[in-house]
Design a protein that fits this description.
The complex is a heterodimer of chains A (250) and B (282). Chain A has seven helices and ten strands. Chain A has 250 residues and is an alpha/beta fold. In chain A, the strands form two sheets. Chain A has a six-stranded mixed sheet, sandwiched between helices. Chain B has 282 residues and is mostly helical. In chain B, helix 5 crosses helix 6, helix 6 packs antiparallel against helix 8 and helix 8 runs parallel beside helix 9. Classes of the chains: A alpha/beta (250), B mainly alpha (282). At the A-B interface, helix 4 and helix 5 of A face helix 7 and helix 8 of B.
């Protein structure tokens, strides 16, 4: 359903103010095909353009070459079909949890907005905090609000850009489980970027390893371990080692 | 589902509003301590004749003199005229600054076109406009109001533009992802994001408004607190000068408190340093 075909991205292209001399090639010939209800993670060395790729899929940035299609339609800007959770929660500090989630629904009739907001906030377990302001939330709660804001629109694809990297490891594991539970119930496709190889192995159906500057596909690794996957199981550890080797982190 | 107790914090909005109010009023009382002490010292200095009364009359004498003006009814008129000038000048200056600031803040073309001019005009000390304004608008109300408006304009304009340009790009990206219309982007993101800096502009603009009304009234007026000061000087009544001075202080503080009260409500979402201090005291 999501096709990334030969996508390249150059920043500071000729004609822009940065000038050709500063042109920076972030991605080169990246290919990826993601099926319905699949979980794919992108791991890679820093600066390999994983986040850039995700931004292109979300429609925030446009590719310099190649194309991205969702259900056959080219992506030329953000749509309600694709939800996005950033590394930071990015909540509006002047809006309550409820009103932050409402931002994704403004074109719907008010009654439907309220019903969907209540449901999405219950799904992330924040009903007691629906009228709280972001400053009153912990980091994990703020990120769950961001997940609710992305899912309330019922997108067919959810993109997450290192969504748990700023959280402590206990909260991170809880949120990973929570996200999996939501994914099992609502049938969306999940594509996420992570630095955490173990996170990639425990969550994904497939791990795409990216490397280099500009970033390219390095390897694709299928994870055929039944869920729930224990972080300590030998199969998980073996795959983790394999991916770390593919990343060539010495 | 999966609601967890581990991350649960104290439910928001509960507790301590009465305690907080008590802390705030205690803080106010502390703010009054120094002025009251100064008044006491001032009265002592005046009564003991350390400074002669024609230079520094005591607070009681100032009060008596002002009470006479109140009885005659003129004091209210002077206050009303000055407040009216500041209000009109502030309204004109703030309206112009808001419209032009919003335009140059939101359009790169207009910014490149207009902003250098405003920056250059800002460099002209506002009082330097006086001769020109008197030539153009005469010596009566219009030139005074225009002078105040010019003084009010720049801090508001500059703060508004800074606020708009400083809006977090990351939040604007959320607006794009959520598919916000241009109108909703302005209403739900840009306006609240800009509000703190805009309100700072309004407050400094208002302070300049009070400054310029004195300038305008000192230079030529037949009414107003500034005129009253000049009149006190000409007629050798230092108590009237000091009384007007105190009234200016009260009016400036009072109008500033109005904006501050609004800001407190409008910016309640902010997680500021002052608030954490209050919480610690509570």
């Amino acid at each position: 359903m999501l096709e990334i075909a030969n996508v390249g991205k150059v920043f500071g292209e000729p004609g822009s103010l940065a000038g050709a001399s500063l042109a920076h090639r972030a991605l080169d010939g990246v290919n990826l095909s993601v099926g319905e209800h699949e979980i794919v993670s992108l791991v890679g060395t820093s600066g390999c353009g994983k986040s850039t790729l995700l931004r292109i899929v979300s429609g925030l940035d446009l590719p310099s070459s190649g194309r991205v299609t969702v259900d056959g339609h080219p992506v030329d800007g953000p749509t309600s079909e694709v939800g996005m959770v950033f590394q930071e929660p990015r909540l509006m500090p002047w809006l309550t949890v409820r009103e932050n989630v409402r931002l994704a629904l403004l074109d719907l009739p008010p009654a439907e907005q309220d019903a969907r907001i209540a449901e999405a906030i219950e799904d992330v377990g924040l009903t007691a905090f629906i009228d709280a302001f972001p400053r009153q939330l912990s980091g994990g709660m703020a990120q769950r609000t961001a997940i609710a804001r992305a899912l309330v629109r019922r997108p067919s694809i959810l993109l997450l850009d290192e969504p748990f990297s700023a959280l402590d490891s206990f909260t991170r594991q809880k949120l990973q489980q929570h996200l999996l539970a939501l994914w099992e119930r609502a049938r969306f496709t999940l594509v996420f970027v992570t630095h955490d190889v173990l996170e990639a192995v425990t969550l994904s159906d497939r791990v795409m390893v990216m490397r280099g500057q500009p970033g390219r596909n390095q390897r694709e690794i299928r994870v055929d371990i039944p869920r729930p996957r224990a972080r300590t199981s030998p199969e998980v550890r073996a795959l983790e080692d394999e991916i770390v080797a593919a990343l060539d982190l010495s | 589902m999966l609601a967890d107790s581990v991350e649960r914090r104290a439910a928001p909005g509960l507790g301590g509003t009465a305690a907080k109010a008590a802390v705030v009023s205690a803080a106010r009382l502390k703010g009054l301590a120094v002025p009251l002490g100064l008044v006491a010292v001032w009265e002592i200095v005046a009564r003991t004749g350390l400074v002669p009364a024609y230079l520094l009359p005591g607070p009681s004498e100032v009060f008596t003199e002002m009470a006479l003006l109140v009885e005659g009814g003129e004091l209210w008129e002077h206050i009303a005229v000055t407040v009216w000038r500041v209000a009109i000048g502030f309204a004109v200056g703030a309206a112009a600054a808001t419209v032009l600031g919003a335009l140059t803040g939101s359009s790169r073309l207009l910014r490149e076109l207009l902003d250098p001019t405003f920056q250059a005009l800002k460099a002209v000390p506002s009082l330097a406009w006086v001769p020109l304004f008197i030539l153009w608008f005469g010596i009566f109300e219009t030139s005074k109001v225009m002078l105040i408006a010019v003084g009010v304009f720049f801090p508001i304009y500059l703060n508004l533009v800074t606020g708009i340009l400083g809006t977090d790009r990351k939040l604007v990206e959320v607006a794009r992802i959520c598919g916000l219309s241009r109108f909703d982007l302005v209403r739900r993101i840009l306006v609240p994001a800009t509000l703190p800096s805009y309100l700072t502009g309004l407050r400094s603009g208002l302070a300049l408004g009070w400054m310029f009304v004195i300038a305008a009234e000192l230079m030529g007026a037949s009414q107003g607190l500034g005129f009253l000061m000049i009149d006190g000087q000409m007629t050798g009544r230092p108590a009237v000068i000091i009384g007007s001075l105190i009234l200016f202080a009260l009016a400036g503080k009072g109008s500033d408190a109005l904006i501050e009260a609004f800001a407190r409500r409008a910016l309640a979402w902010q997680d500021g340093f002052g608030e954490t201090q209050e919480a610690r005291n509570a």
